[in-house]
Design goal:
mainly beta, 8% helix
């Protein structure tokens, strides 16, 4: 039994292991996966002296409780939340020393959705196709954490952060998402394209790591036929039969049969990870603007 390990005491609603994911395998039907709020995960790794791509824990809404078998340094960031060690308050967004056997509690998100727990040495579960990420769609990687799960940790390389705390963006009060049109924007009427960029949508409570679902006005199709399945990319905005856009996130399928009206700019995707149900969404075309509306 190794002493470099974390024991999961309380897994929370959904806590998974995530790193930078496994891009480059879409031709095999393997989703990208990886931390939804990649900048937050990389920042927490920096605070504990890990490389940016080290595996961390991604919690959802209500955090988790962990007990290390040896002394570790941790940092919790992303969605703001209370942090404590053996019941004593500890800082959020800063390195925290956790003694061997102590209970690290990551509490319920005060705002936002997903918090990230980086541990010195990184979570060292076995990689699959070059990544330790949990993929909820394909089932690759370790399963979501359960009580009693033991997570091996890597050895710290002796690097220490040169800062004690770093600024982090607040979870969004609204999402303003820059998008490029297509590849199937011509499957929608001019009125639908105007609606898409002028009306307010909201984040649906049925959103998950696969896709951010929206609530709002339905988009009218100009083409009623069936679309053969075609490749899907991260950030693709697919419109299913109900007419409400769905933004594909890290665990999205690699192919899909519903038309894609637009694709979200990659730099705007991390904010979607922290958008709570009901958050307003505004889509704005930034290039290749369609002249039909």
């Amino acid at each position: 039994m190794t002493d470099r390990a974390l024991v999961v005491v309380r897994p929370g609603a959904l806590t998974t292991v995530q790193d930078r994911g496994r891009p480059g395998h879409a031709h095999l039907g393997v989703p990208r996966s990886g931390a939804l709020d990649a900048p937050a995960a990389a920042l927490m790794n920096r605070l504990v002296g890990n490389p940016p791509g080290a595996a961390v824990l991604e919690t959802t809404l209500d955090g988790c409780d962990l007990r290390p078998r040896s002394a570790v340094t941790v940092a919790v960031g992303g969605a703001p939340c209370p942090v404590s060690v053996n019941g004593r308050p500890a800082p959020w967004g800063a390195p925290v020393h956790v003694p061997a056997g102590a209970l690290l509690s990551v509490g319920k998100a005060v705002s936002g959705v997903r918090s990230y727990v980086a541990v010195s040495g990184g979570v060292a579960v076995d990689p699959v196709l070059g990544s330790r990420s949990t993929d909820l769609l394909s089932g690759l990687g370790p399963p979501p954490l359960t009580a009693g799960t033991v997570l091996p940790l890597g050895r710290p390389d002796g690097t220490h952060a040169r800062v004690d705390v770093v600024p982090q963006p607040s979870p969004p009060a609204e999402l303003v998402l820059r998008v490029t049109p297509g590849p199937r924007d011509d499957w929608f009427t001019a009125a639908a394209l105007r609606t898409f960029t002028t009306r307010t949508y909201r984040v649906s409570a049925s959103s998950n790591r696969i896709g951010l679902r929206t609530e709002g006005p339905a988009l009218e199709r100009a083409v009623d036929g069936e679309l053969p399945s075609e490749g899907m990319v991260l950030g693709a905005i697919q419109v299913p039969p109900d007419g409400r856009p769905v933004i594909f996130l890290a665990d999205h399928p690699t192919t899909g049969g519903y038309p894609v009206i637009a694709v979200v700019h990659p730099k705007d995707l991390p904010a979607t990870a922290q958008a709570t149900p009901g958050t307003p969404i505004h889509f704005t075309f930034v290039s290749g603007r369609n002249d039909r509306f």
